[in-house]
Amino acid sequence: MPGPWPAAFAPSVYGPDLNIPYLATVFVTRRSVIAARSQVIGQFLRTMAEAAKILHTDRDFSLKVLAKQFRLDDRNVLEAAYDSEIKVLERRLAIKREALEAVLERRSRRLIPRRRA
Question: Model's pTM, two decimal places?
């Protein structure tokens, strides 16, 4: 089981190994906002795509940004976090139908009232 964990803290199941479709990051807005501010929405998505590309192609810069954002100076902690997460982060912003369907299905189960036995 991959990961930077000490043996005593190793997870019994490592999620990425299961290849379960999921949405790691979701951006939500209203249709009216998309219609009214389509250029802003487009620029935001292009910026997020560029950030994802940099995250995967420039490890040192990514660690520098993480250190600043999390106010951490322990390189070992930053590298362990980066190494464990980079494997499950998408290189491209793409909508995977099976991941979206899984989220919608799970959400619909919450909205349907349960009968008491």
Answer: 0.65
